Amino acid sequence: MPDPNMITSGLSKRVTVEGHELSIEIYKLESDLTWLLEVVDEDGTSTVWDELFTSDQAAMNEVLNTIKEEGLSAFRDNANIVPFPQK
């Protein structure tokens, strides 16, 4: 059985928040009914919502509300970052 295709929402985009660029990525597998939401900052740090969304617009609304309420700090909380082991 072939791997399912990944569908990226047309709502996915780059935004600038407090002078920093964020990439809002909304996607799903073609066989899924729910959408995933991920924000990647300019350092490559990824924030992924645990919640799944019934539509890509619902995911976009969530991230825009988060940005409005919390600003850049929503994506720069170092307490949530798990560092990879150094060799």
Protein architecture, described:
The chain has 87 residues and is of the alpha+beta class. It has one domain. It is 17% helix and 31% strand. The chain is built from 1 helix and 5 strands; from the N terminus they run βββββα. The protein has one helix spanning 56-70; strands at residues 6-8, 13-17, 20-29, 36-41, 46-48. Strands 1, 2, 3, 4 and 5 form a 5-stranded antiparallel beta sheet that branches. The radius of gyration is 14 Å and the shape is globular. The mean pLDDT is 89.
Alpha carbon gyration radius:
14 Å
Uncertain regions: pLDDT < 50 for 5+ in a row?
none
How many domains, as an integer? 1
As a percent range, the share of helical residues equals 10-25%
Percent of sequence in beta strands: 25-35%
Number of DSSP E strands: 5
The end-to-end span amounts to: 37 Å
> What's the SSE pattern?
EEEEEH
Main beta sheet: strand number and arrangement?
5 strands, antiparallel
Mean pLDDT: 89
Q: Specify the structural class.
A: alpha+beta
Shape: globular
Number of helices: 1
Main attributes of the structure:
single chain; 87 residues; alpha+beta; five-stranded antiparallel β-sheet; 31% strand; globular
Write the layout of secondary structure elements.
Blueprint: E1 6-8, E2 13-17, E3 20-29, E4 36-41, E5 46-48, H1 56-70
Antiparallel strand pairs: 1-3, 2-3, 3-4, 4-5
Q: Can I get a quick summary?
A:
By secondary structure, the protein is α+β, with helices and mostly antiparallel strands. The protein has one helix at residues 56-70, and strands at 6-8, 13-17, 20-29, 36-41, 46-48.
